[in-house]
Amino acid sequence: MNNLSKPSHSDFFSHLYIEESVIDEPLTKEIISKFSNSKIIMIKHYKDVFNRPNQDFAMQSRSKNLILARREAPFLYEGSYYSDGFEYENFFYTPSILGCLYDCDYCYLSGMYNSANSVLFVNTDDFFEALTPYLEKPTLIAISYDTDTLAIESITSHTKIWIEHAAKHPNLHLEIRTKSANFKAIKSLTCNENIVLAWTLSPQKIIESYEHKTPSLEKRLRSIKEAIDAGWKVRVCIDPVIYNEEFHELYPPLIDKLFNTIEPEKLFQLTLGSFRMSSTHLKRIKKLRRSDIAFYPYEIKDNIVSYSKEIEQNILETMIERATNYIPRTRIRTWQLQ
Fold it and tell me: What CATH number does residue 128 fall under?
């Protein structure tokens, strides 16, 4: 199940937990129709399932379930310090889906939530209403902070709903970040200059070691090319770079592979960044004891764990040097601790 594009697979969402208040919502009914073999369990509130203590995150990751619920305010959060706001005065992310179908060892979600299951909030109009006061000026919304929206698109239509809403509001800008190979799920939609599709890329060896359940590098590259050829703005994110003794053998050739697949002048932007995370989330990930990433001797500054300044500088200088063989420095963004 590399592309997660067919919701009929029996190895995920064997159970649907549905809040009583949303059982008659159109999106709820649409999703139920896609899982005729799943067991439906009615609940009062999603937190009774998603937030309950003493859950086994690693065990749940093997067979994830879906919770359908109604979100209460807040519907928007200010963009995280760990992410690039691209100089927008208004930069928010929306928690309209919690939890991801993928299972990356370095993902902060495993250090943030008790549960590996996913929560979909079906009251999308409430998110749009909360956003309205900000649309008098350009506003960037990241819709895939707490999930990978394209990975789950064939089930939720979440990306489509946001793209169609953005088409009605010239000041609404979206970043849709993904590791999926599922561009085909939105291929029929009209391109919008205010929307950036942002793919995270890693060397295949890193994908196999740490990015469990995600599509291969080749499949992601094909999806990127398809999106660019269809006229979409595409940002490629080699971020986070996972540093190890094979860094120079793995990551600079990834740049070459990218630009041997797509025409460099057609890429909107390349972003580069090394691993970083709040120390609080990393402590929780260590308790899962699933990966050597959690136990690297990081440096800690202002509650952020990251590589040493020397390693981070080596990562960025090496990657920028290779990337500028293909695109100008002005189209490369980097994330560094200040």
Answer: 3.80.30.30
